Amino acid sequence: MGTFIHATADVSQQAEIGENTKIWNLAQVRENAKVGKNCIVSKNVYIDTGVTIGSNVKIQNNVNVYNGVTIEDDVFLGPSMTFTNDMFPRATNQNWEITETLVKKGASIGANATILCGVTIGEYALIGAGAVVTKDVPPHTLVVGNPARGVGYVCCCGARVSAPAQSCENCEK
Fold it and tell me: Percentage of the chain surpassing pLDDT 90?
């Protein structure tokens, strides 16, 4: 085993890639980005300059992770989900500032979800497919819709539970 970078991937020499990480076709990892150990960076993923991604992270096809985003360990990013990093986007803005976003350990973000900048997604939170997250998501909370709203709670394994951080029959966490 070991690190694998597909021949069509564009990985900067100034990027840090952890051992046993796989970077697949047409992915781009920019300078000063850090990707931890045992990650999967799937087809057509864009990881911007200065991004930090923890270990054991799975990034599905067509995901954009922009400067200012930090991803902790054990996170799942579903197909075609995206982050933003500018609170007031304009084609020309002399005062442009990056607004940071944090995705905490074990969180999962569903396909086609959009995460607006400046939010924190809590540990083991679950973002439903197509959700638009506009505010912080507490740990173990399931959110859906546009704008995303809490509709329940999930265990570390992802199963629905009645209260946050509660374990379930499927696991012993």
Answer: 86
| CA separation, residue 130 to residues 31, 65, 112, 160, 171 (Å) | 30, 17, 5, 19, 27
Closest by CA position to 158, among listed 102, 74, 82, 83: 74
User: What dihedral angle (degrees, nearest 10) is formed by the CA atoms of 36, 21, 127, 87?
Assistant: 60
Please state whether beta strands 34-35 and 52-53 pair in parallel, antiparallel, or not at all (unpaired).
Answer: parallel
Average pLDDT, the chain: 95
CB of 160 closer than 8 Å to CB of 144:
no
C-alpha closest to that of 100 among 73, 75, 65: 65
With a CB cutoff of 8 Å and minimum separation 6, the contacts of 3 are 17, 18, 19, 20, 21, 22, 23
Q: Tokens for 90, please give them.
A: 């304009």
Cis peptide before 147 (omega within 30 of 0): yes
Read off the pLDDT of residues 89-117 as tens digits, 9 standing for 90 and up. Answer: 998 888 889 999 999 999 999 999 999 99
pTM over 0.90: yes
